[in-house]
User: Fold this.
Amino acid sequence: MFAVIKTGGKQFRVAANDEITIAKLVGEPGDTVAFGEVLMLTDGEKSTVGAPFLGDITVAGEIVKQARGEKVIAFKKRRRQNSKRKRGFRAELTIVRITDILTGGKKPEMKKGDASAVALKAASPATKGKAEPKAAKSAAKAEALDASNLSLISGVGPTIEKKLRAAGIVSWNEIAAWSEADVAKWDEELKLRGRATREEWVEQAKELLAGKPPRAKADQAELASGEDY
Assistant:
């Protein structure tokens, strides 16, 4: 049995006991992580594809260690301009060992003391339409979204997302913790031209962590309908 999961904007084919290297997740070695964005499950000759995710499938894993990728050097020189620049970068990574693929809506047992572990699970179709407390709904929304998906912040496109990841910014938590000085620093280093302030990236990151829907999706829905939200 194997599954295809999505995390950090990438897809991985995983089976029990596999080790995968993914974009950094917050947690310590030994922490339990759960991936709910399962795109496909294959058991023997039977394959099931999600639309877009399989709500009753969860892939459980355990953080092996936090690591960094190989150094990448970017060198830029302007001919006859007496101008050159050299910059290095090492991506922040997490090595995870897959422990189990749970079906039928089962959830993994999160180890005691691993509150920092990131649980990424999609809402189960069986629970749709049932009345839930407001706080529970907000928590469910927050869990259903991938904190490493920077593109859910309105104004962060593919090019800017690459710049952020190259600078080691791989989750909403880091953006939500930015101070005014941090915003100014990254605006200058990444050539954002005031976009982070103008489009309120810090506030958007805090909203996403609180379980609110992404502004990016709301903006797209507004454009499609022609109505104000």
Notes: The helical segments are 134-144, 158-166, 172-176, 180-189, 195-198, 201-209, 215-225. The mean pLDDT is 81. The chain is about 25% helix and 30% strand.
